[in-house]
Design goal:
Number of domains: 1
Order of helices and strands: HEHEHEHEEHEEHEEEEEHEEHHHH
Largest sheet: 8 strands, mixed
Helix content: 25-40%
CATH architecture: Alpha-Beta Complex
Distance between the termini: 45 Å
Radius of gyration: 18 Å
Number of strands: 14
């Protein structure tokens, strides 16, 4: 009879990526919960985005404790806040079959990792997460918007395919591209799916990444609830990439979405299009 460890191993390996900037209290809760509730074989990559509040020392201690227990955990410390796309630094070093991205103010629930990775038992699934959405194509092209009017009022149920999922706790297939020897632009292996740095410092970076995954021919699956997002909607959060503030970035990035994806509807195979 297979043990729980055997069943977890068959789900694949995970690279858990957490980006943080000056939110030590929230980060402590996030990482403590991840440490307690992660059961699949995993490595942790914590990107310290130029924190000045003691986060660096805390992460040194946290990673040392994880390693002492036989786990894998590394901190990538950046000198300045390089925006949300600084996650790319971790993606280039990740070795797992799947990337599990968790925001630093998220509390994962029991079984969160198994719920995400179980979605990939279907080879057509390229990404998974909770709170799914369908894209309203007419709404997308009518932008830019300050509110997400490109999302259909109809919502998918857990287990169904969708076009987008919430970006604070989600997962995708981690695929490494090995450039051809004759390539003139890429010389080192790089992740097939990564953040477009034009979406820095924040807003719609996960929307774009999920559309990359769909354009590659994959589908996205909505999971049952797996995590709680403790977003801090205050002045401090504005400096830490909280999308409830800093609306001046929204319109520019919505225009960028239209510029990048507006003529690629057929490539995206939207779920409402599949339904006719």
């Amino acid at each position: 009879m297979a043990t729980p460890e055997d069943r977890n191993a068959r789900l694949g390996t995970a690279s858990i990526v957490v980006l943080t900037h000056n939110r030590l209290q929230a980060l402590d809760v996030c990482l403590s919960t991840l440490e307690q509730r992660t059961t699949v074989p995993a490595e942790f990559w914590i990107v310290d985005n130029g924190s000045t509040d003691g986060t660096g020392d805390y992460l040194d201690e946290w990673c040392a404790r994880v390693k002492a227990g036989g786990g894998r955990a590394e901190t990538i410390r950046l000198e300045t806040n390089e925006g949300v796309c600084a996650r790319n630094v971790a993606l280039r070093r990740a070795t797992g079959d799947f990337v599990l991205q968790v925001d630093d103010d998220v509390i994962v629930g029991p079984g969160w990792d198994r719920a995400l990775l179980s979605a990939f038992s279907n080879p057509a699934v390229g990404a998974a997460g909770q709170e799914g959405f369908f894209i309203d194509w007419a709404g997308l092209l009518a932008g830019p918007w300050v509110a997400p009017n490109f999302l259909s009022a109809h919502r998918p149920q857990p287990g169904e395919f969708c076009d987008l999922v919430m970006g604070y706790c989600w997962a995708w297939r981690h695929q490494i591209v090995h450039p051809d020897a004759l390539s003139m632009t890429q010389f080192e292996p790089y992740p097939r799916f990564g953040y477009d740095e034009r979406f820095n410092p924040f807003w719609h970076e996960e929307t774009d990444l999920q559309l990359q995954i769909k354009a590659a021919g994959y589908r996205i699956r909505c999971t049952p609830p797996i995590a709680t997002h403790r977003s801090m909607k205050d002045a401090a959060a504005a400096r830490n990439n909280d999308p409830i503030v800093g609306l001046h970035h929204a319109a520019d990035h919505e225009r960028l979405l239209i510029e990048k994806w507006g003529d690629r509807r057929a490539d995206l195979r939207l779920e409402l299009d599949r339904r006719g």
